[in-house]
Amino acid sequence: MSSPLLPDRHPQRDFFVCDIINAAPKADVGSMEHPIFSLSTKPDLRPRHYEHNGLTVDIKPSSDGIATVHDRDILIFCISQLIRALNDGREVSQIVRFQASDLLRATNRMTTGRGYDLLKAAMERLAGTRISTNITTGGKEVFETFGLIESARIVRQTREGRMQEIEIKLSDWVFNAIRAHEVLTISRDYFRLRRPLERRLYELARKHCGNQREWVIGLDLLQKKCGSSSTSFEFRRLVANVIREDEAHSHMPDYSVRFSPDDTKVVFRNRGSAPIAEVFEAYLDAEAHEEARAAAPGWDVRYLEVEWRRWCTNEEIEPKHPSRHFVRFCRTWYEKRGAP
Questions:
Q1: Same domain for 47 and 177
Q2: Same domain, yes or no, for 132 and 157?
């Protein structure tokens, strides 16, 4: 029986050539945990409301429909580049410029004319979908209605009119998550999953199971978190299809998917291959950088933050109070090295 995964269209990994090479794919935690994107492969024109544990999301489609799980590839590409730049101590901007072909290769998409057409349609849905939520990113609540990307434009085209260089402006909501490192590394095989539901199940497992042995969730809550509009019977059937193929092929990245013994819950088990963070990822309070400047006068606090995150990773330290720990790190750094 053939594998349910898409073929690996670009096995040479010659992508992210633009500025950052081999950046690990990363997704923002907010939209991994909550159903921001549509699972439909057809235009989804229904406004949606999601509420869970006091958090709410209202999603309004444009005439092109709500942004889909596959449209999310564009955000993952941009997030991956910016996080790598931050880890390297570079300044980043909400405006990201890249080669269209780099994105297509990085996300295992077709590089044919249809691949470029689908990319353009995805950008239009991302910009057209409007969101209102009280979910904070980077410790900040964005009160206005916003798009997942604020704008997208083709900077350069080939003579045949095919997009060549693209410029995207990310929303404040997404950019705040990037600056706060509220992201998780995901498997490259995520881009080989065919079905939107498979991708959504992986996102939830990556967020909630992480590096734990297993994560168990009831079918009703799983359906809610997936954002599925199917009936309960149909959703169960769709999940059962994924489980059946995973039993046969172990195709789901990092986590196996099975029903519980009583068939009322879904169990995600860690295969031991979940990506390990390149650097310690934790949110810093808004005041942390100001306190760090006072603790290490003359030093670039963004540079010190990169050094702190790398040190925490190398020492396998996960401080309970990251902001206080970071300021102490800066103070010790200055005491040892003095002014730059």
A1: yes
A2: yes
